[in-house]
């Protein structure tokens, strides 16, 4: 168990309840403690976690703090609030704790917030929520706003004031089954590069993780790599020379560590590390770079290989035909105008027809409530 996302209803809970919830959870997990726990900002919960889960890294989701900024600071700062907000957003992007502290102090003096109680609270808790302090904790992207919104939408779809725990788990099971039946996500995962690493990763990773890795792989092509005397690498964007990363390479263990710490935090390799793997002629990533959390075999998804292959073949045919058509029609303006007009007409007709065809795979409504990580 590497991490948990704790969902507690805090509106009517007493502090003692937090202790009881956590003890019950640990008991339920047969005494095994999580490596990381991600929660909302709540001081009572923080104390309970420190007491009951002393070896667990507690992360307060920054996405749970951002919506409170307006309530806390818009009145005292008035017209300066928007500027403060962009200062605060820039803090979240700071990579090192030194950079964070420097920028924080700048912000506090710029807006004269030395004695503000919320600033004092946030500063005292910075090691819990500031990404520059929590970057090395594996949180599998669950602190992002996108994930929190998907959980929120899912819970609103299955919870009501009368929902019991049994019914909640039934709903989760039903939603997962619907997603399995649809297989929608996996069918349309197509490769976007000719890099063998991508093909291999597609066979191993869940759709969400594959999409994330694919995005990094595409962007990795924009990075230059130079080897240092100690065997590590400088990696920098071809335009942004000032954002250089250091990738440390330990050949004996096939271990690679980037200064951005993306893999340590999300379990998805960053573009910088991927660039180094490509330069080193890797055609598949070492097994350890596919964490259990992101493997198809450990997710609730299952794949229909035949269906997936058929779709791949169809997609390749479509792509090849479109490319040929584009090349032929680009030869002259007359050709281009003719193809464009005819194609648009035909595509709109087809689109309307397809939209009116029955869809018997996905029951409407419930599928949309399912968090994309399930
Ligand atoms: Zn990196």
TrEMBL record:
Residues 246-281 form the SWIM-type domain. The keyword Ribosomal protein does not apply. It is found in: Nucleus. One of its GO terms (molecular function) is zinc ion binding. SMART domains: ZnF_PMZ. Belongs to the FHY3/FAR1 family. GO terms for biological process: regulation of DNA-templated transcription. Keywords: Metal-binding, Nucleus, Zinc, Zinc-finger. Putative transcription activator involved in regulating light control of development. GO terms for cellular component: nucleus. This is Protein FAR1-RELATED SEQUENCE. The keyword rRNA processing does not apply. It comes from the Eukaryota. InterPro entries: FHY3/FAR1 (IPR031052), Znf_PMZ (IPR006564), Znf_SWIM (IPR007527). Pfam families: SWIM.
